[in-house]
Amino acid sequence: MTLIDLRSDTVTRPSAGMRRAMADAEVGDDVFGDDPTVNRLQAVLAERLGFEAGLFMPSGTQSNLAALMTHCQRGDEYIVGQNAHTYRYEGGGAAVLGSIQPQPIDNEADGTLPLDKIAAAIKPDDPHFARTRLLALENTIGGKPVPLAYCAQATALAHGRGLATHLDGARLFNAAVALGVEPRAVAAGFDSVSVCLSKGLGAPVGSVLLGSRDFIARARRPRKMLGGGLRQAGVLAATGLYALKHNVARLADDHAHAQRLADGLRALGLNVDGPHTNMVFVQWKPEQAASLQAFMAERGVLVLSGARLRLVTHLDVDTAGVERALAAFGEFLARGFQ
Ligand SMILES: *Cc1c(COP(=O)(O)O)cnc(C)c1O
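Above: the input entities. Below: the structure tokens describing the complete assembly.
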């Protein structure tokens, strides 16, 4: 029985074609800048997203942290959403390792940060305060594509007040596909962007940080400091190049599968939020939530546990897999969830 893994879009396994690309990759020592495949990935993604340069990173967490540490010095502050990955789900790295103070603001339901609250959070130049240096946004956030008109306003506000701007674009390509725009339009207005290759794009490892030539040159120091200077990383970068070629347009399939999943779960009478790109959220009663995970696993469907369950589609979930998952949910409800 093939497993249908709806826990995350990070669970994909490299396809045969992707593995061939790894085997065929030309490599060199990337700390010396000698790896031609890493260099090509960085150049291709920079060109595609409208930046001068890129830097390959082992993970999105490291890419975001290296960006924050490049924009901000010790005692600086960055404005960020309460629900943002950099603030909430990265071990507090900005504060712990960067000595950068986060200034979180509550996200609106659509994932945005109210412009008046951003403006009010920017501190005057006064020894009482940390120096506000950066605004960090995320797109998609909780699967929701953030409207580009909003991003333009927020980045203009930040730049007008002397702040730099960073986008955590872990799922930037999902946002572009959902909004029906070129990926570079999602990146527009930001001084730096971090993109994950290991989420919906299906690579096993890797993120790329994009920015100006000078910014990327400076980001090499925190990357090295954080342990991200890799050697023959071309075997990994080759998966990113393969993913950019083969796995971007097909993100629309993941979004369609999430739509079908949401429709089917609603038809079962469940309390569903979404789909938001490739994510669907389902609210369970606590007594249901406790037994759901084991019940689904017995039927080959992997889900996380919790009262607000996040289901994520990706390139290892096809239409038949969605239907099988829906059938298992239906059986769970019909049996009175033992
Ligand atoms: C997954 C994710 C990251 C971090 O990426 P890792 O490669 O898991 O470290 C950062 N931001 C967002 C929005 C993510 O979803």
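Note for the figure: The chain has 14 helices and twelve strands.
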